[in-house]
Amino acid sequence: MTQYAFYxxxxxxxGCHTCQIACKDVHGLKVKENFRTVxxxxxxNGYSPMMYHISMGCNHCENPVCMDACxxxxxxxDDMGLIQIIDDCCIGCGDCISxxxxxxxxxxxxxxxxxxxxxxxxxxESGEQxxxxxxxxxxxxxxxxxxxxxxxxxxxxxxxDAAALPSSGLTSPNLLMRIKDxxxxxxxxxxxx
Length: 193
Prior knowledge:
By secondary structure, this protein is of the alpha+beta class. It is 19% helix and 24% strand. The strands form 4 sheets. Strands 8-1-9 form a 3-stranded mixed beta sheet. The longest helix is centred in the first third of the chain and has 10 residues, at 18-27. It starts with a strand and ends with a strand. The model has no long low-confidence stretch (mean pLDDT 96).
């Protein structure tokens, strides 16, 4: 099985939210329904403040606590390593939403079914990029087989942890990030825009 993953160059992300909007558009999501969100943080002291952005969706984790929390087995890992939800099996209990430390699962209001990033599997299978990746103005977001992403970015210092994110030890996310030095500073503030 090939494991797909996201790569985020957080050092150069400008926080434009285009990836978030493209995802909402391709999946027909309403207000407050998101499969991908962009969060903005500040760190540093008053004399040299820094700002950074993190674009986050489902990380299709190696140890998906969301899947473990689902009491009706409505979630599974597909042949691309993507965690998928079987709509017909979901009972809308929200246990997967509560379990995900990344906040990557949402409840669709009209259907009361949990939903999340599906890796734009239909687009990928037709040779296109995931909507979030294709829309990224700065080209800082990529999605593909993790081995290919690791090889492509081998000269970069890639991490899976940043102070504003849950510890990667919780779920082993399939996420590779290039980060700013300040992103490891535990003294940060989330900026709500």
